[in-house]
Specification:
By secondary structure, this protein is an alpha+beta fold. It is 32% helix and 23% strand. The chain has two domains: 75 residues, Uridine Diphospho-n-acetylenolpyruvylglucosamine Reductase, domain 2; 133 residues, Alpha-Beta Plaits, CATH 3.30.70.
Length: 262
């Protein structure tokens, strides 16, 4: 391929951005499937400034570009990719403190950060929480599609706090909500520990005193996890609260919405 035309003098060459532009680089080593022909041009970026500068350079040069991440969920043709492939290694992860004392901190992750690294950082920073029911449902639909595509099971554990003297229609007390939060945080931590997971478990609140946790294990494996969690958490519950659990392995005929409300 001949060098690109139309590069304006106003834009710096990639080398001035600290980016090394290479020609005819095989893409197979950069994909999980280990297949793929060459890219006409290939460059690795490690910062946002490098990424934006290189994209602007390619646009000014009328050069097609493709941003390559971890190389999963894709299959590159033996013919390769025409134009420029930008290997995204922008991996910075940090906790950004809020400008006000009453605001929440946010975890900042660049687009090339690995999910496992983001998860480890969030754990080190003590970030925990449950998804809202609607967000949990959308996330579980994605999890179910992933499970079907990869032919792995998806099992949902449903936990609830119950007081024998409590009327179902009553709103939870602050005391009960604090107990729910402690139980949910510990249940998620134990799930990830027992499954030796490197990414956060998908979990969310599905009722006033209920939450659910998804696991990519069979019903029998999930049952062992849930039994250990219930055994540990029952001893942490206040005297007037019971901690109960149920388990369902998702099947094609199931409604995720109905499973969460069960």
């Amino acid at each position: 391929m001949t060098p690109p035309t139309g590069i304006t003098q106003a834009l710096a060459a990639p080398e001035k951005l600290g980016v090394h532009l290479r020609r005819d680089i095989a893409l197979a080593p950069y994909t999980t499937m280990k297949v793929g022909g060459p890219a006409d041009y290939f460059a690795t970026v490690t910062s946002v400034d490098q990424m934006t500068g290189l994209v602007r350079w390619a646009q000014a040069a009328a050069l097609p570009y493709f941003v390559l991440g971890g190389g999963s969920n894709m299959l590159v043709s033996d013919a390769g990719i025409r134009g420029l492939v930008i290997h995204n290694r922008c991996r910075q992860v940090r906790l950004e403190q809020p400008p006000r004392s009453d605001a929440e901190a946010h975890l900042f992750a660049e687009s090339g950060a690995a999910m496992a690294g983001v998860a480890r950082q969030s754990i080190r920073d003590g970030l925990t929480g449950l998804l809202h029911a609607e967000t949990l449902l959308r996330t579980l639909k994605d999890e179910w599609e992933f499970a079907q595509w990869n032919r792995v099971p998806l099992t949902i554990a449903r936990y609830k706090l119950r007081s024998p003297k409590r009327i179902v229609s009553e709103r939870p007390t602050i005391f009960e909500m604090l107990a729910l939060r402690r139980a949910a945080q510990r249940a998620v931590e134990l799930t990830e520990l027992l499954l030796m997971s490197i990414v956060p478990a998908t979990a969310g609140r599905v009722g006033p005193l209920k939450f659910a946790v998804a696991m990519h294990v069979s019903h029998d494996e999930g049952k062992l996890v849930v039994e250990q969690i219930v055994s540990q958490l029952k001893g942490l519950m206040p005297p007037h609260l019971d901690f109960l659990a149920s388990l369902t392995e998702v099947k094609p005929e199931h409604s995720l919405h109905a499973l969460l409300e069960d």
